[in-house]
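User: What would this chain look like folded?
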Amino acid sequence: MIDLKGRVALVTGAGGGLGRAYARLLAQRGARVVVNDLGSGAESVAKEIVDAGGEARACLCSVTDAAAVEAMVQQTLKVWGRVDILVNNAGILRDKSFAKMTLDDFRLVIDVHLMGAFNCTKAAWEAMREQKYGRIVMTTSSSGLYGNFGQSNYSAAKMGLVGLMQTLSIEGAKYGIHVNCIAPTAATQMTQGILPPEQLNLLRPEFVASGVLALVAESAPTRTILCAGAGSFESANITLTRGTYVAGDPPSAEELVAKWAEVVNRLDEITPQYGFTQSEIELKKAGYVPPEKSEK
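Assistant: Here's the prediction, encoded as structure tokens.
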């Protein structure tokens, strides 16, 4: 049984859809929840939680407003003394093919998804470091992981969140801060009109919420990209093939093309634990032998 009693959670974009499902489930498991959104939906969800016997506070502000986000976190610390869980869920869509995409539409989506998650995480990070405990969930997407027509802005933002998660999971490890990504497939306001009703009925937000609960539990993993929808769960990974070595100073592009099948062969591919893994592998294949560490 995942018990969140004593924990304080902040869920952005929680006035409806996925965020509402997350906030309600975390509250049901005992967490005190800050319900963040732009409109009155946040107040409605907070009231739902309180009426059901839980503890919740609504905070109406945009995640793009760094000062307002900082004030939200500081008020939470003042009232409840800590912030244990942050679910960066707020998001918008401005779908258009890249040829028709305006700079404003591209920038706005980046600002809400990527910069919004940065603002919220930055505001809560120091409190989590001091208490040596934190659970942070970034919301990525299959569009970011694999691409999707008409969503260059959304895809760029969502893959950016994966990179942010990768580094923060490393930096937060010694402070007990676990950072993960959820890639949801769900029937929300953002997906209405995209999928047929019979599919939307199978993709209820509550089915994704279970995955988020697993990612914020005390036993949560870190550095996981969890895909979730319709009761199905998968993990996605950024992998590195074994590749090949091309001799020469510089290497021959023609030989690289000739060896392309070896470059993309996914047999025995690995998931690097940090960015320098790539350079370590490449230097080793080039014949570099690191100097032995002197014994003291």
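The domain at 8-236 is CATH 3.40.50.720 (Rossmann fold). If you want, I can go into more detail on any region.
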